[in-house]
Design brief:
CATH class of the largest domain: Alpha Beta
Number of helices: 13
Radius of gyration: 24 Å
Shape: elongated
Number of strands: 19
Helix content: 25-40%
Structural class: alpha/beta
CATH topology of the largest domain: Aminopeptidase
Strand content: 15-25%
CATH superfamily of the largest domain: Zn peptidases
CATH architecture of the largest domain: 3-Layer(aba) Sandwich
Number of domains: 2
Bound molecules: ligand BES, manganese (II) ion, zinc ion
Length: 459
């Protein structure tokens, strides 16, 4: 990632003034007569997202005016400033006044500078920002770098991001921070991780269980589990092409868990971190697992396959069971698990589930303050019996089409027993159309809010 933040103290920076309906007249009044004339001639009215670049007498850029919502506006985008890197010419800039939240605006500026350049040259002017006063630039850089990592991993197409490449990404990260890394692969999974093996075996690219641990073993144990389905065809319950199109993003849970782990390790939080990523490709072949197959999971629960397209919960089940065995203080899993989550809340607002009321309140609060939106949904006990199977302990996909995201969360809950507290987030991991600070494509979701939670608790 290019260093977005300019921390050299003597850097000459072009001022950006945030203007809204409320202060536009005052801002205009403070301009030179020429600039005021230019603003008027351009028809600039400080509407949210509009940008005015004002020249100096010598032809250089004197300053920038950028429109944002009024303080009292019904809906205000704290990431507005994330559009600036796409609007400004190369140069170093600074905020001349405070937008609603200068920290989030600066973060958005960094997040909005992301471009995916692996397969073609992106000529993107180098736009830098002097961090606003009182804002911890190192912390913002840490968050932006993590988001870039998650986006790069998700945006990389499946032919270059299979289970092996995901393992390499995890191993690189583990090595960078001196974490202890191990990985179980292919047929070696059959005995102890039957569900990961069952889902992954039809692909010519063998499945994996990636496992690394970092930090002082005496510190509180926090374990992260991420769904790493490198491509989801649906298996024999094949998805239609429209549903399959963006399934390279089905390792979004893994990508976000790695992003979260990177922030935790970089900030040296006082936890014993463990990261588990079951990495598979849900493929179609003669040896694929089938509807109504039954497997005995790692935990001993027998699972009937109601639908091979409900594969994410299967691989997470075995990984959660393993994580649960060492009774972590906090067990967190992230995954792109259901279309139903998106139907309920849309792509930008992932549902989260927990029975820990304190944790729920903290997550909801930090999701808001970090502008990493999350919304609590219930582990509704009355629906738990929907998981009943007539021939096994449970099914992975009950026949009814109701409450799909809740049912998935209830399925996963069956595999968590000893962890002190458990948080599950059903993310989308993808921005369907660009918004300020959120370019189209792979997206970092839930990782920043959870990182903040962990740094509040274990800094
Ligand atoms: N990876 C999908 C979920 C998904 C689909 C997320 C589209 C985001 C967008 C998951 O593996 C899946 O296919 N889930 C099924 C479950 C169903 C078969 C019970 C779904 O949501 O349709
Ligand atoms: Mn699926
Ligand atoms: Zn999937």
């Amino acid at each position: 990632m290019p260093p977005v933040f300019e921390t050299a103290p003597d850097a000459k920076a072009i001022p950006i003034t945030f203007a809204s309906k409320a202060n536009w007249e005052a801002v205009k009044k403070a301009l030179s007569p020429e600039s005021r004339q230019f603003a008027e001639a351009s028809g600039f009215a400080a509407k949210p997202g509009k940008c005015l670049i004002l020249p100096a007498a010598d032809g250089t850029i004197a300053q920038v005016i950028f429109g944002i919502e009024d303080d009292g506006a019904k809906s205000r985008d704290p990431f507005r400033a994330g559009a600036l890197p796409g609007l400004l010419p190369a140069g170093t800039y600074r905020f001349a006044n405070a937008p609603h939240d200068a920290r989030l605006a600066a973060l958005a500026f960094a997040l909005g500078s992301y471009r995916f350049g692996r397969y073609r040259k992106v000529d993107h002017p180098e736009v830098r920002l002097v961090p606003p006063e009182g804002v911890d630039a190192a912390e913002l850089t840490r968050m932006a770098e993590a988001a870039y990592l998650a986006r790069d991993l998700i945006n990389t197409p499946s032919n270059d991001m299979g289970p092996m490449e995901l393992e390499t990404a995890a191993r690189d990260l583990a090595q960078r921070f001196g974490a202890k890394f191990s990985c179980i692969e292919g047929h070696d999974l059959k005995q102890n991780f039957p569900l990961i093996h069952a889902v992954g075996m039809a692909s010519t690219r063998p499945p994996r269980l990636i496992d690394f641990s970092w930090g002082d073993p005496a510190h509180p144990k926090v374990t992260l589990v991420g769904k790493g389905v490198c491509f989801d065809t649906g298996g024999l319950d094949l998805k239609p092409s429209s549903g399959m199109l963006i399934m390279k993003k089905d390792m979004g849970g893994a990508a976000n868990v790695l992003a979260l782990a990177q922030m935790v390790m970089d900030a040296k939080l006082k936890i014993r971190l463990r990261v588990l990523v079951p990495a598979v490709e849900n493929a179609v072949a003669g040896n694929a697992f089938r509807p109504l197959d039954i497997f005995k999971s790692r935990k001993g629960i027998t699972v009937e396959i109601g639908n091979t397209d409900a594969e994410g919960r299967l691989i997470l089940a075995d990984a959660l069971a393993l994580a649960d065995e060492e009774k972590p203080e906090l067990l967190i899993d992230l995954g792109t698990l259901t279309g139903a989550a998106r139907t309920a809340l849309g792509p930008d607002l992932p549902p989260f589930y927990t029975n820990d009321e304190t944790l729920a309140a903290d997550v909801a609060r930090l999701a808001k303050t970090e502008h990493d939106p999350l919304w609590r949904m219930p582990l509704w006990p009355a629906y738990d019996s929907w998981l009943d199977s007539k021939v096994a302990n449970i099914t992975n996909a009950p026949s009814g089409a109701f409450a799909g995201s809740i049912v998935c969360a209830l399925f996963l809950q069956r595999f968590v027993e000893s962890a002190k507290s458990w948080l599950h987030v059903d993310i989308y991991g993808w921005t369907p159309s660009a918004k300020p600070g959120r370019p189209e494509g792979g997206e970092c979701q839930a990782a920043r809010a959870i990182y903040k939670l962990l740094s509040e608790r274990y800094a």
